[in-house]
Every structure is written in structure tokens, then in C-alpha cells.
Amino acid sequence: MALLRLVFAVLLVALGSGLALATTWDEPWHREVVTKATSFGLYEVVKSSPGALTLRRIKHIAGEETGATLEVNAFYALRLTSRSADHGPEFSLPVGTRAYFHLQRSGGAWAMATPSAGYAPLRRDGKVAGTYRFSAHQALVDPALYEDTQRCIFMVLHGRTGCEASLAAFIGTELAKPAEGLGEDSTPAGREEFFRQHVALETAALVQVPIPDATLERFLAKADTHVQLSAVRALAGSRRSDRAERLMRFVEDEQARLPARMLAALLLQETGAHEMKQRLQDYAARASQEEAGLGMEIMDPRIGTRFPDNLREAVRLAAAQL
């Protein structure tokens, strides 16, 4: 059940004497998907072709009303990194699919983020395969929890407040439990709790619900890449006075997972931690050059997503942009 995957490099496939490019793109992270969307709701696909989807509205949740039936024929956050001569970016959801969509008005029709971002399908088991970090990092959650958290994320990222308090109890309850990872030895109950904690940490990061320092430290210390990724994002989204120092110490922590350390370096730059510029520059010379990723599959079209190849590259990139 490895539902958490990401892609990093550009896929080039040599065919004969020529060079054929697959269609690939730089996938947006969830913050961008939601921020650029103007509407969010539950829909059913009633007509599907490579060039467009026709959706029937089941439930409007947030933002602009779309109407009972609408056409989606464009992408609002698609940045191509290569393009196949035979197949460009296409819609691929079959008729009958029920999914939550983040949508943006596009002329007389609508757009979704990319062919792989901006929708969360309802599965046959009743769970939602929902995104809180990146479309290849999905959590299986109950529809009610998905709707409540995503509604609040949409509201906050569009400048409204007041919903955070309703989520604080959920976040506090889930993060008071022992940190769960997602390994081969995980039990069904453990996997379910892992996903709920993933939702709690990622939602806290996006809507800035405070997490006690001691609680966050337990998740930063959990020996699981995806737990540490979420914990680092929650730390970066916090208002802690020592946020930059703690992120930098995580970058330098050789016991922590490399992908999470790389993300921590990038988040220092993203949060404007200028006081760490010199420390990052000094650390770069001894930072690991071991190739690290976030569990990608090379044939995934999201292979164009920008992310450093190793910790040294991440540290140098962050320092250069501070």
C-alpha cells in the first residue's frame, strides 16, 4: 500500500538513432493547487475524452459555484518539462468516477490543476485517496474528514479564517498518539492511524494550527521518511520563535532521513530564514552527496518535478536563494 510516491528527474528514452521525449511535467504541491483554485466540490465524471471531462456536481463545498453540469478542458498549474510528439497532457478519468475536484474557471469552461493533481477519487472501499502534500503522496481517509480538512485549507489559503479551531481538537487528538510509520510490518489499524496523523500534520502546516514543541519533536524523531517530511512541513508552518534554528539542526542531523533533511533545507529558503545563509554555506562542503528521493517511479509523468538530487545540492540551492 505504498501510496506515497514522488518523481524527480526528466525522463529521456532513446529510441533508435533519435531521442523520444515522454510528456512530463513539474507537478505543483497542494498549497499551489488550492491557492489557484476558485472552487472545490464533489463531482461525477459523466463524459470523458482525452481533451475534456464533463462533470455532474454532487456537492459544492467551497469557493465559487460551478453549476450542476460543467466541462473541464484545461489545466491551470501545468508546467511541461517535455512533450511527446504523439501524446500531450490528457484527461484520463473514466466515466463513472466520483472525485473531489479543485477547479478554476477558464473562460466559459473550467480547468483542473494538471492531469494528476487537483482531484481526489472516492474508492470502492469508501475511502478518499486525498492529497495534502503532493499528488503522488496520498492518504486514504474517510470522506467526512477529507471534506472538513480540505474546506478549511481552502478557506485559509483564500484569506478567510475561523475554521482552524474546529480542526484543533482533531489535530491534538491524533498527534497525542504514538507516531505511526508506513512500513511493511504496518497493521491495518496502524496504516489508518498513519494516514490520520499525516492529515493532521499536513493540515496543521497549511492552516497554521499550533502543535506543542514536545509533540512535534516526537514526529521529527520518528524513523520514517514520510512522517519526518510531514513533521518538517508542520515545523516550517509554525510560528515558533526558534523555527529557523530547529530546521537547520534537522538539516544537520545525520540520523534523520535524507529526503526530509533536503526538504528542511528548502523550507529554510521558503520561510526566508536569512540568518541561516552563512550556516548553510558552511555546512554545504560536508553535506551528503548520496542520491536521495521520495520514493519515485521513473515512468511517472511527474518526473519533471523540481527537487534536488542530494542534500548538498539542496543546501547550496537554499543558501544561494537566501
Task: Give the SSE map.
Elements: E1 12-15, E2 18-21, E3 24-25, H1 30-36, E4 39-49, E5 52-63, E6 69-75, E7 80-82, E8 98-106, E9 109-112, E10 119-121, E11 128-134, E12 137-141, H2 143-157, H3 164-175, H4 188-207, H5 213-220, H6 225-236, H7 243-252, H8 258-270, H9 277-284, H10 311-321
Parallel strand pairs: 6-9
Antiparallel strand pairs: 1-2, 3-7, 4-5, 4-8, 5-6, 8-9, 8-10, 11-12
Helix pairs in contact: 2-4, 3-4, 4-6, 5-6, 6-8, 7-8, 8-10, 9-10
Give a brief rundown of this model.
This protein has 10 helices and 12 strands. It has 322 residues and is an alpha+beta fold.
Give a description of the structure.
This protein has helices at residues 30-36, 143-157, 164-175, 188-207, 213-220, 225-236, 243-252, 258-270, 277-284, 311-321; strands spanning 12-15, 18-21, 24-25, 39-49, 52-63, 69-75, 80-82, 98-106, 109-112, 119-121, 128-134, 137-141. Strand 8 and strand 9 (109-112) form a beta hairpin. Helix 9 runs antiparallel to helix 10 (311-321). It is of the alpha+beta class and 322 residues long. Residues 1-20 have low confidence and may be disordered. The protein has one domain (12-321). The protein is built from ten helices and twelve strands. The strands form four sheets. Strands 4-5-6-9-8 form a five-stranded mixed beta barrel. It has a two-stranded antiparallel ribbon with strand order 1-2. It has a two-stranded antiparallel sheet with strand order 3-7.
